[in-house]
Amino acid sequence: MTSENHASEKVGGAESVHIEDGRQMNGLIYGIDEAHQKRVIRRIDIRLLPILGLMYAISLIDRSNYSLAYVSGMAIDLRLDIGQRYTILVLVFFIGCIFEIPSNMVMQRAGTANWLTFLGIGFGAVNIGMGFSNTWQEMAVCRTILGVLEAGFIPGCIYLITCWYTRFEVGKRLAIFWIGSIIINAFANMLSYALALLKGTHGLNGWRWIFIIEGSITVGLCIIGWFLLIDFPTKSDSLLSPEEKQFVIDRINNDRGDGDDDPMTLRRVLRHLKDWKLYVWSFNLMATTVPAFAYGYFKTIILTGMGYSVLEAQLLSIPPDIFGAVIALISGWLSDRYKIRGPIIIVHQLVTAAGMLIFSYTKAEGVRYCGLFLAGGGFQYCIPGILAFQSNNIISQSKRGVAAATCMLGGSIGGIIASVSFKSSEIPYYNTGIWVAFGVSILSICLILMMDLYFWKQNKNARERGILLEGLPGWYYTL
């Protein structure tokens, strides 16, 4: 169940690489000793993870404030009680998912700071515009543009993070990136509630202030992010000295052979898209985001449907989110420590499915609330876990960018499925949506077992017959 790396050994929190041409002598790599290595990795962590996590948290807030706006007057003002208008507004957001791969291609050329800042300022401005929408059609246009701008943001973040770290450093770092957004988003619900209390200020209803002020915060933070974001390792002159940059590139090359530039051309993209494994990971993420999007969009409505006030629903939504963040961090650490991905994801998917069945079919409010804990604790790790799973089994920077985008494309499709299967007519139990989520989760588990079996056989053949996997000696798939 472990993936091997013949070219590296653990040194504290970092890894000390064995350079084949003899440039490592007496524990030094280009004059960088072990303590210096750890400082370099720590500096990368500090410059990369907090700002990306914060910017992504803001984009997540822009999405999840939708359900609170619904119960804070938007449903009445825009007449979302007619037909499937609310479902349509949820659905059109995901049209933009087709821009995920092109966005990563642009980011590689435009630079991470320029492109991610542009996207962030863009979706922040659109959120401000949503606060001034007077009809549900205007809101639908804003939601569509928002989806286009946000489509490239998280694939870009994942692409950048996975290019900086070795395979068994990336699991916990993706979890840290993810849980930061979970925690911020949990407490941001209280901000949204407070903004809703501005109802009547300057003649605007409370839900409008949610979009206007949170959109303004997004624009401001993304402008700050432009000054802090770092680029890919080969373009990191502002962060690292030449010796430090070479150390980072060499350790990645010795771990998986793709530390150097590998431009995303159309020909390479099309070649990478022929790999069947990308679509399995995409489906896996889709199976996770069906309950995740449902949880984000409908948990406030579910809790108010259980008889709680809007304020009580916001307060009660925080503990399950914090619980999910803690579990995600623990599982991310364990997956790196024991070098496994698939089995841990399977456990979390089973817990998610159980939690959703509990809060859908149990009548007792306390038990239903426990179901929210199980569901949140289950799926929150699955997203960074699946992203780490696919990242560990991919070689080349260009394929890494394509894989991140195709994986998140599956996530967006999960959002579409959630928006149409969790029907407003079934409030607050959503029986159809629950069973759809349960079904795709079970199928995802079967696909992970199939892929792990395939990887195990490939690794066995490589060890026994000397076959090169992905063209790299001593490299093995991660189960």
UniProtKB/TrEMBL annotation:
InterPro entries: MFS (IPR011701), MFS_dom (IPR020846), MFS_trans_sf (IPR036259). The keyword Transmembrane helix applies. It is a multi-pass membrane protein. The chain crosses the membrane at residues 44-62, 82-101, 113-132, 144-162, 174-195, 207-229, 278-298, 318-335, 342-360, 366-389, 401-422, 434-455. It holds the Pfam family MFS_1. SUPFAM superfamilies: MFS general substrate transporter. Keywords: Membrane, Transmembrane, Transmembrane helix, Transport. It is found in: Membrane. Residues 48-460 form the Major facilitator superfamily (MFS) profile domain. It comes from the Eukaryota. The keyword Metal-binding does not apply. This is Major facilitator superfamily domain-containing protein.
